[in-house]
TrEMBL record:
Catalytic activity: ATP + H2O = ADP + phosphate + H(+); Couples ATP hydrolysis with the unwinding of duplex DNA by translocating in the 3'-5' direction
Family listed: Belongs to the helicase family. PriA subfamily.
Species whose genome carries this gene: Turicibacter bilis
UniProt-listed PANTHER family: PRIMOSOMAL PROTEIN N
Protein name: Replication restart protein PriA
Primary gene name: priA
Highest classification ranks of the organism: Bacteria, Bacillati, Bacillota, Erysipelotrichia, Erysipelotrichales
Amino acid sequence: MIAEVVVDIKNKAVNKVFDYTVPEELAHLIQPGVRVLVPFGPRTIMGFVISLKEQTELQNLRPIKELIDVVPVLNDELRELGMSLSEETGSTMIQCFEAMIPNAMRAKYKKKLLCLSDTLSPNLASLFQNSRVIDYEQIPANLLKEVKQAIEHKQVELIYEVKDQLGKKMIKYIALVDPKLDLSSFNRAAKQKQVLEYLIAQPNPVLKSQLMDELQVTHAIMKTLVDKSVIKEIEVEAYRDPYADVVHQQSKALKLNQEQQVAVTTVAHACEENACDIFLLHGITGSGKTEVYLQMIENVLVKGQQAIMLVPEIALTPQIAGRFKSRFQNKVAVLHSALSMGEKYDEWRKILKQEVQIVVGARSAIFAPFKDIGIIIIDEEHEATYKQEEAPRYHAIEVAKQRAITHRCPVVLGSATPSLESFARAQKGVYRLLTLSKRAVSTAKLPTVKLIDMRQHSTVSDQMILSDVLQEAIAKRLERQEQVVLLLNRRGYSNFMQCRECGEVVNCPNCDVSLTYHKPNQKLKCHYCGFESFILRRCPSCQSEELRFFGLGTQKVEEYLQDQFRGARIMRMDVDTTSKKGSHQELIAAFERKEADILIGTQMVGKGLDFPDVTLVGVLAADLMLHLSDFKAAERTFQLLTQVAGRAGRHELEGEVFIQTYSPEHYVMKCVVEQNYHAFYVEEMKMRRRFGYPPYYYLASVMMSSEDYNDLIMACDKVNQYLRNQLGHSCIIVGPTMPYVGRINQRFRMYFMIKYKQEPRLRAILSQLLMYFQEGSVSLSLDFFPNQFN
């Protein structure tokens, strides 16, 4: 039998299947979708078995070395999806397959040196000492040449050990070897006898840790009894449960209003008809979209089918996960980045074993290995986080559409501020539009939104942080013991450090960006490559000591609020305060318990939070994203401001929103005040049509980078000629252009943007280009769903 295997090498040159013979002892175990270890050149590497066949035209095939999985980790659908995704995204098949499994299952390679001879040189003999195998990393640099010679003379062998990065969690139980044990021989060993009496009284094996705690027994006593073959240890696999300490009271379906009921019924009919329709659920903030999702899923579960619910990573709060756990209890698996590697692995295995019917998760949960999907729901469908920015550069919505066709099920895209592409498709009838125009709580109204023109309003201090209007509004809420949410979409303390003598800005040595000042640890940090530096005392250009901090970040606002509102409890939520495991969850829970009066944060405070006592939302520096050189700048600003405004007044108390801006006349700001998505859509579509952007054109990008600027420019000239010669006149080629950040991590960057309506040869042409640039100092990457060009 011959196995076709995709090997774990992320290079276009080997992006194909390789034939291996299946050893007789593995013939009944090898199946498509399992992982195996195979020889590849001098190495042993991991691979996925794609298919099995009886014959091949190739000669001298090498055998599979080892089987990793007993049960396939990729079913037929996911293998086909991975191969088509490889073609559509310009990625390798192995990159696509690895995106479908947890990080814990990705192979970890370790080089080791195996001793084959007893006549090694003294230097090498001292390395091995009493061992036959040593880690390659232990070899001193001055002995590498000697090691190479020893390999050539077959005195030592370089071997590759392949392992998963994580194993299963095992729990130890204790049981008697012989339940009819005579205890008379243990009369002089009181503790040992106590253990045995305890076990005799138990009908089933006992948890080892529980037994040792109850009887106050040491590990030495337990080992003695095992060595005497009186008791035995039994290892039982156990899942790591991230919600083990959280009690979820069973909740029941809420009564729906007319619009909600229409949405649920319409999608239920599509499910009954096995129609792979795509629905756009356009519901204002607070319109009860989550309850609609829950009831849509409930209808699917009744049929015995499964459901995938995607939520943006930034909005995957304990509130959302908690609502699903409360409604569906142990039928739910949750996948997101806040979980440990082991927790993600165990949640994924529940899905693989079909022990759950629902998965709630971020982008990668779209690859959940379900076999009978009845519905796929993507909440906040406009969010950029559904696009994977590293290879394979897939978009979760596009993958959802492919899976929906396979399973003959509907896809529901939900948002208060849909992407222009989605709403345009709904207007044309490509998507089916469902609308929720009212808030779910009948007494709740949309908040009043007011613009504060920072060109005219006075501020409380010269720092231009809070206008006097917003300052007074916060003070009123504090008096009434209500809560406030403030948004500033920029973390850190100050944006940059500049010399007042010569004007020099302190930049990152690796990237073309300024370093951001973080006050708590007195560091300057690069938010692109992670470079850190202590604060400079002298200007690196003119040696002046007149260095000053400029700009505004969430840390500075937090400090300012503590000074202005003494006694107020202030909480900050940004990447710096939520980096530790569980910290995001703890912050939200604390704010929900009213342990803080003011929550200041970046865009993560604007997504998926529902607090009944939040009556004021303030937006500081609302223009931050509006004037970026990005065709989606206006759309993203409107979406973020509308979403964060929706955090106010979601229940009985009325809400108010203040937006501080220097561009009050901009159509985005006016539409946010009116909370009028349709007006924004009309205005923005005019701009998109005028300049030739989606949804009027599709986009693809070719990003190029190199440590050598001259090499990059020469390569750009060649790519420019190739694209213009190969692509039809219907394509508009923009570039080569330097992105907003021209250098990241010591690599200069240039890109081409390709606008097209119909170009069937595009993927083939760009894939050929990718093959050409596999070697050399210039790297090239393709993106068929580009979200940004910075």
